[in-house]
Amino acid sequence: MTEPAKAKVDMEKLVSLCRRRGFIFPSSEIYGGLSSCWDYGPLGVELKRNIKDAWWRAMVQQRDDMAGLDSSILMHPQVWQASGHVEGFSDPLVECKGCHRRWRSDELGGDKCPECGGELTEPRLFNLMFKTFVGPVEDEASVVYLRPETAQGMFVNFENILNTTRKRLPFGIAQIGKSFRNEVTTGNFIFRSREFEQMEIEFFVRPGTDQQWFDYWVEERLNWYAGLGIKRENLKLRPHDKEELAHYARACSDINYLFPMGWAELEGIANRGDFDLVQHAKSSGKGLSYYDEEAKEHIVPYIIEPSAGVDRTFLAVLCDAYDEDEAEGEKRVLLHLHPDIAPIKVAVLPLSRKETLAPLARDIYAELRQHWMVGYDEAQSIGRRYRRQDEIGTPFCVTVDFESLEDKHVTIRERDSLRQIRVPIESLKATLQAKLDGEDLFVLPDGGKIWKE
Ligand code: ATP
After folding, report:
1. Measured from the CB, is residue 220 less than 6 Å from ligand 1?
2. How many CA atoms, within 13 angstroms, populate the side-chain half-sphere of residue 388?
3. What is the 309 CA–ligand 1 centroid distance (Å)?
4. Using H for helix, E for strand and C for coil, what is the string for 325-365?
5. Ligand 1 centroid vs 313 CA: distance in angstroms?
6. How far apart are CA 376 and CA 349, in angstroms?
7. Contact predicate 376/403, CB 8 Å
8. What is the rounded distance in angstroms from the CA atom of residue 125 to the CA atom of residue 192?
């Protein structure tokens, strides 16, 4: 396949920015780090939380057909038997160094790739699930797994949610949480790690309407990424071929993003049919079905699953937001982050460190902090401070100068347009709120609004 475009930023620059500014650190760094595990620092934790909040708002809060869940990471081991994870991931596999096809080593006749004749790697256990034990005895009876996906928690709670929420088909269950996979090939920063977070939906529909709902969710999820500010040309849909589909899937499409290493999966959307409910009903002996009042019969819903990665979304929004340009006569690095997800919404900057400005600037800082994550910076020149805020994606800076003491006005400086407007302190909060909501206006002390051209 020809690569149509190239990402604007390379991974090294992003990793370095993330480290330098406190978005992401290697895990246990003072001990040399732990391969493919990462810690989200003061700015990273804010950006990550904002991404999760944006997803929850759009997928749960603003819909009337969705119920939230936070199920436990450790689950009954039978869950993973029924789902196929225990069996499906525990074979010793070898990988062809040429075409990267994987083969079960115990089924191979020779020591070359049957597909292309390439050289093979040593056999490795490719079961992706981390195993641990509950209780004090480490024997087979006490084995549990760290979940490799959040999905199973939603399938096994299907009946609980149906009974407690009285939802009617079609409806969904949504969950955000940690998942763990003992990935064999890791790398590309937070793209593929062994501990990561997922944002998953299991959407239950009537059989026969599944294709229509599958199409709906593909569109809905693409729109969500665009709403986060990701450019549409950097998103691409990749429908799976029939041969590529997992055994349970009737259809699957990946939403791919143009990462620095090329197009790669951001989210997978699958039509899982009735596989999961049927498997868990068989394995648990519970009838996991839905009683259709009109038809007076039990049906097993089909499931559409949009499954997204928090960390991959984090990486995608950073890649997409990264830019370098010139501002106020200097080169600058900036993140055009959407205000909804920017870690710091506003930074308060007294023009000088002189004691006379500090009380007013600190008062403004204290007031704005009641509403958003706000930064305060008085070190070095104002230009340097603007640069620092641009580099972490702060959409607005508020500058307090000596005139502010007299006229009770401050300057709002916009990250992207570099426009500066002077507003009364009295209506600063309302003006910033309007701007954070995407309205290009400012608010007068009496509450009146003036639209900017
Ligand atoms: P890949 O083929 O890239 O490993 P996958 O097809 O195994 O991904 P799914 O099982 O469909 O991934 O998981 C759904 C989503 O969870 C992915 O689209 C991705 O965003 C996220 N995800 C899966 N594995 C990882 C990982 N190791 N690190 C970070 N995110 C992950």
Report:
1. no
2. 19
3. 7
4. EEECCEEEEEECCCCCCCCCCEEEEECCCCCCCHHHHHHHH
5. 11
6. 6
7. no
8. 18
Per-residue pLDDT reduced to its tens digit, 290-316: 999 888 999 999 999 999 999 999 999
State which ligand 1 atom lies nearest to the alpha carbon of 264: 3
Report d(CA 290, CA 288) in Å as an integer: 7
Q: 314: Cβ below 6 Å to ligand 1?
A: no
Distance 149 CA to ligand 1 centre (A): 9
The response to whether residue 195 sits with its C-beta less than 6 Å from ligand 1 reads no
Give the number of C-alpha atoms closer than 13 A to the C-alpha of residue 11, restricted to the C-beta side: 11
The two tokens of residue 453 are 């051209």
Q: What is the pLDDT of residues 367-393, one digit of tens each?
A: 999 999 999 999 999 999 999 999 999
E strand map for 156-310: 171-180, 195-205, 235-239, 251-259, 262-273, 290-292, 297-299, 302-309
Amino acid identity at 193: S
